Amino acid sequence: MTTVNVGMIGLGEWPREAYLPNLAMMPQANVVAVAARSEQTRAFAREHFGADLTTHADYQDLLADDSVEAVIIAVPNPIHSQLIAAGAQSGKPIFFEPPIGLNEDEVASALSALEQTDAVLQIDHEIRYAPVMRELQRRLSDGAIGRPLMARARLWANWAFGGCDWNQAVETEGFFLWLGCWYLDMLDCVFAEAPVRVGVVGGQAMNGALTDHGWAILQYSGGGCGAVEFNLVNCADLEVSLHVLGTEGEMIAEAWEGTLRWRTEAHSWRETSVPCHQPPHGFAGMYESLTGFLDAVADGTPVLADLGVIRRVHEAALACSQIDMADRAGDREQGIGNRE
User: Which CATH architecture has domain 4-119?
Assistant: First the structure.
């Protein structure tokens, strides 16, 4: 197994919860450098990774560090575009979180930089990497339920139930750029194209101006229809699922449970279990997503969440966000946007 020397930019709450426990289980990952603005975070990094770790106050110094073979970027959303562009321009393989920007200009700037590099690029659409999603895609490709006609990605969570102290920070981003990319990507796993028409309805229940529950409806050029159903104010439990209706049957994947159910006219419900790596740290598919990146760097394994996926998902996210923001501003006319 080839070892990859990794540099991390950012080591806040999310990478500590999702990256560190998973990287610790990967013998192919050797974290050699961390860049963080605060001395407190750099001290934590040295304590966690050991005295041989190199720390940087400036992320540009990490990008220029010859000992770093691949870079994991985990920073706050408002500086995603800047750091993703810088990472791409460094020529090193980069792994980064969505969104790549918070408006059209930032997304375009990041995409321009990403398009100029031949290095490995992977956005962290970890649900796409969950084994049950891989199995769903395989069965769809094999025609298990015929041609997909409709798909619904469902997120029900208590993350914002009762209101949260972070809601002001994400109100300006809106749901679709803050969280929506992951669930729009679930639809992309089925249709693999940007929508030509979108519609959004939703409400603001407990988190100021943030649309914390609602639906996005997407129409695709091939005739497929998709929906993202999101509810951040569910009182309990977490559900992340994808329901696909085809010309010959239907299929349902549960991301956290790893269960896949399907039926056709000829057969009643059948079920298989394809769980993600246990225990799941951060989110379902996170281990597989990081492993996929390291494998791509080490031996050229194809990236699933590649530049094409990034373009399509962000086109959908921006379209949904524009309608959501217009609605919140009170000047939405019909809630429908044509992308043709």
Answer: 3-Layer(aba) Sandwich (3.40)
